[in-house]
UniProtKB/TrEMBL annotation:
The keyword DNA-binding applies. InterPro entries: Cas12f1-like_TNB (IPR010095), Transposase (IPR001959). NCBIfam families: guided_TnpB. One of its GO terms (biological process) is DNA recombination. This is Transposase. It holds the Pfam family OrfB_IS605. Residues 190-282 form the Probable transposase IS891/IS1136/IS1341 domain. One of its GO terms (molecular function) is DNA binding. The keyword 4Fe-4S does not apply. In the C-terminal section; belongs to the transposase 35 family.
């Protein structure tokens, strides 16, 4: 008969082996505060307050790595004196997770310092925005597609967004988040890797200002999320209020909500666009754009999009991301004959001056085709040719999908000597 420790080791080993065949997916759900009673609101508020006390107390230790994780009370600075406060809401596993997070942060800073980066030190926090819930079934439970429970909290929490988690997913852990006055539960799952069943296909992407994305299959994507006038009004109001007063804090939360709203829209667009491209194309070719230089010239226009975020997401998530050097003349080169010629910024149509070619094509579409061709050369891969009907059908499906995303306007220019919108 094996001991308890040996059984735990065997279970951990089996889990690690299983995780190698799975992919990690994180789902963010929102706790519906309209269903919270007064006791639950007080409990959640106290939970994050105690988490902040514990985090700051850990940082105040001479040797952080000798911290006792079974601590039940901590000293808290109140003006010029210290008072002892009890940790009544934080469970033992929550305390262990917060202390472990400090250890991980210190190790991360140490690794960066070894690599030559200039690093500082961890600072005390006036507000802690997340608490790890490391054990599913203990620190938190998912009861059904509507309700969850958290260790120590008597009331069941109604949560929006649990339906997006597949039934076959293995739930690993979660993080309780408090930001902009709202509570969220970020749930980490592991799922079986889905291999693409379609043949290897490639796509070239040209990023721009007037058209945020132009694909080599003739699709152009435009979107912009203007900033609401509310943040400016709230910022002026905040500057006139007494710092750290109740009204100042209410205004600060409202201001944060407005910023988060704009960020969430851009993040949603980025995730949906990248997900569609990743699932449809094995090879994605794009240029290493100098986004910082773009921001200096077209600051507001770049601010209202998330081009930098899309490029970063493609680098991390695409099956085979091919990055083309930024000095490659994708705009100047004719995608039909390879002729290189100068083209002004205000010229939106590329007209090849080679008398044997006379290619006329949309400027950005031409650039995207060149990036696709150059990317395939870099990895020495031949293009898989499709029939015109297959190309047109696939293009129309993608246009329809992109237009279903809020704030996006997608269209397609089919190359046949002239430009005709397909959608």
């Amino acid at each position: 008969m094996i001991s308890k420790n040996e059984a735990i080791k065997a279970s951990i080993k089996a889990t690690k082996a299983k995780r190698k065949t799975q992919t990690c997916r994180v789902y963010e759900t929102k706790i519906d505060q309209s269903y919270l009673n007064h006791a639950s609101k007080e409990y959640l508020n106290r939970l994050f307050l105690e988490a902040k006390w514990l985090y700051n107390h850990v940082l105040s230790q001479e040797n952080v790595f000798k911290m006792d994780d079974k601590i039940h009370e901590v000293p808290v600075k109140v003006k010029d004196a210290f008072e002892i406060r009890e940790l009544n809401c934080l469970s033992s596993q929550m305390r262990q997770s917060i202390i472990s997070r400090v250890y991980d942060n210190i190790r991360g800073l140490s690794e960066r310092k070894k690599k030559g980066y200039k690093v500082g030190k961890l600072k005390y926090k006036s507000e802690l925005q997340s608490i790890p819930l490391k054990q599913f079934g203990n620190t938190f439970k998912i009861l059904n597609t509507k309700y969850v429970t958290i260790q120590g909290l008597k009331q069941k929490l109604k949560v929006i967004g649990l339906k997006q988690i597949p039934e076959y997913a293995d739930i690993a852990n979660a993080t309780l988040i408090h930001k902009s006055g709202n509570y969220y539960l970020s749930i980490t799952t592991y799922q079986e890797k889905i291999k693409p069943v379609s043949p290897i296909q490639s796509i070239g992407i040209d990023f721009g200002i007037s058209k945020q994305l132009t694909l080599s299959n003739s699709i152009s994507i435009q979107y912009s999320i203007p900033i609401s006038p509310k943040p400016r009004k709230l910022a002026r109001k905040l500057s006139k209020q007494e710092p750290h007063s109740k009204n100042w804090n209410k205004t600060r939360i409202k201001l944060n909500k407005e910023y988060v709203k704009s960020t969430n829209i851009k993040t949603d667009i980025k995730n949906k666009v990248v997900s569609h491209l990743k699932n449809k194309y094995e090879i994605i070719c794009f240029q290493d754009e100098n986004i910082k230089a773009w921001q200096r010239i077209w600051g507001r226009k770049i601010l209202f999009t998330s081009i930098g975020g899309i490029i970063s997401a493609l680098k991390q998530n695409a099956h085979t991301p091919i990055e083309i050097h930024r000095m490659y003349p994708s705009t100047k080169t004719c995608s039909k004959c390879g002729n290189i010629q100068n083209i002004a910024l205000d010229e939106r149509v590329y007209v090849c001056k080679n008398p044997h070619c006379n290619n006329i094509i949309d400027r950005d579409h031409n650039s995207a085709i060149n990036l696709d061709n150059e990317g395939l050369k870099k990895i020495d891969t031949e293009r898989i040719e499709s029939t015109p009907v297959e190309i047109e059908t696939s293009t129309l499906i993608s246009v329809k999908y992109f237009n279903s995303i809020p704030h996006i306007k997608a269209s397609s220019v089919y190359e046949s000597g002239s430009f005709t919108a397909l959608a």
